[in-house]
Write the structure tokens for this entry.
Amino acid sequence: MQDISAYISQNKDRFLNELIELLKIPSISADKAYAKDVIKTAAVVKKSLADAGCDTVEICETAGYPIVYGEKLIDPNLPTILVYGHYDVQPPDPIELWDSPPFDPVIKKTQLHPEGAIFARGSCDDKGQMYMHVKAFEYMIQANQLPCNVKFMIEGEEEVGSDNLGLFVAANREKLANDIILISDTSMISNDVPSISTGLRGLSYVEVEVTGPNKDLHSGVYGGAVANPINILSKMIASLQDDQNRITIPGFYDKVENLSKAERAKMAEAPFSLEAYKKDLGIDAVYGEEGYTTNERNSIRPTLDVNGIWGGYIGEGAKTVLPSKAFAKISMRLVPNQDWNEITDLFTKHFLSLAPKGVKVKVTPHHGGQGYVTPIDSLGYAAAEKAYEKTFGKKPLPQRGGGSIPIVALFEEELKSKTILMGFGLDSDVIHSPNEHFGVWNYLKGIETIPYFYKYYTEMSKG
């Protein structure tokens, strides 16, 4: 597009500074202590959309955190693109593992990001990738090159399950009506090998509680005579996977999609170095379900992982206590056709059945969502492919992703729209972990590429 590279070059410092200011706000939706910061971030996003050129921008209240909606409608006869993103972020814990404060962004050069990367919580997931769309839109307005209508829906609860977004979408189908949905909340293979995510895993997230005696007990007086909830919980969790690392919940695999040999061979064409993968993670071996490669395990196969476990005494020094309670948080990543509500029920029934006498077990579902596969024979995919080819100089590879964006399946159900996942992050950007970062090159490349999607999608829609 005319002068887009020049526009980015002229405004690079401003684009970076605006994102840095956004990243300074600790919009942690999971922690009510940061409620004011989440609300403040919504206001900043609203102003950014207005400054970029939206004719209408509003903060839409929900039962939880607000949704920021903006639009620029230029012609009802032209296609409408709905851009979705989120302004909330994951908690930064453990703080002590960050090399720099999580909400004091710094730009540092790395081996994969020689031009520098922005280190901050939310830099890649999803403030940085969401803000690419705001700046790409700004360019199209300033250059008078917006080829179609655009709507923005930026929410503040994605990291806690988007519980209120579904209600908002169902109540605002006409407001949100669109021809295609565009999201940047995924990654690509590498800066040299662009890719488009064509699938997402679903999610079921639960918390479990095991209760034994009615109070903490002396482990010498009662140890060996009373069930220890931590011991029991550990055994119950261990039994959830067998020696081949397959999940033992009855019915868990009944609806799992099994890809053909041809599809798996196509996936294997993506460049991948197992040795580099292990080196990057500081491990000497990979681990997972037998019969599948590493890239298959983290994308097309379901999982069960303990995300946190606690109970008893964890302070400094020793305290010989037999705890009254033990807890764990468990997530299951699901593949297409696995319904998250059904899996949650299967987990709950099975986990309760594992409890021995002497303890009580409680399972509390938190949130979840369905998996999603986007077709590669659609106008949207073709437009995205052409946009990447224009700015990267090569065709992107289609790639299944291992993460979850639960709202995508709901969008299709409620709005009857397909979603295109144009991610510009890298798996090595360690989202959800200490030292999350987003490459400066990737941020600017996203701003450069997105307008071409608008251009090509509009042209293809006319044809």
The chain has two domains: 4-200+371-462, 202-256+302-369. The first helix runs from residue 4 to 23.
